[in-house]
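=== RUN LOG ===
request id: a7f3
mode: sequence -> structure
chains: 1
length: 281
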Amino acid sequence: MYWYGSGTDISTDPAEVAARIRTAKTDMTKYVPCDWKQAQQLGLVKNRHDYIETLCRSTIHMSEEGIAACSQEKDVELLQMVRTLDEMDTVINLLTERLIDWYISITPAFSRKYRGSAAGAAKLLPMIGKNGTESMKKIAREILSMSNARTNLMKEVSRIAVSVIPNMSALVGGLVAARLVSRTGSLAAAAKMPGSSMQVIGAEGALFSHIRTGSPSPKHGIMFQHRRVHNAPREVRGHVARALAAKLVIAARLDYYRGELDAKFVDEANAKIDRLMEAEK
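=== RESULT ===
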């Protein structure tokens, strides 16, 4: 069977072609590549240009159907929220740095000790909003407003993650789980990922540096944000990250194929990681 059908079942309608291709089971050992002249002999097309144009319409139709199907996945909104959150972090940090540099330029005696820390920025912005120029005050208020919006969005991400990826959220928290899925591209991609890849998501720079120069390999990436990893003793942190990554991949598969919390799995996974940390002390 060719993409336009065979026998009496022939058509160049994009929807019919797409449906036919999805159900076709072609034996590639006997497959003969299609020649546009065959379609011309059947009266489907007038010439080669017509054949190519018809084939393009069919493939574009299938692409549109695929995109529409992807947009209906349950993790689409969550991924967009996480990416928005990360973009807001970037914008807030950049604007804060710029505003502080600006404030220092007209206040040379100002201490730089607050720079580079979130706590410092939290103290500086209200101060600049009170003592800076009128333009500085407006920008400081805008940054503070955006920070509040960012905090609310973070809570919303955590809340939705619990329903979309319940098992991953139960292991590492909603925000970290959502960031892991966001970096993999989708929950489906996370479910097909090996644990070793999950372990170093977010540490791509260090990984490629390790491959190119032989520098020490990264032990963790985004997973470091979770307390079980960053609170673990330095000498066992890699072991904890590896074990947790393996459990996260299983959790991603449960979330993708079942879509509901498996409390027994979560309890056993947490217990195993706790035993590992205790054994390494």
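=== NOTES ===
The two ends are 64 Å apart (CA to CA).
The mean pLDDT is 86.
=== END ===
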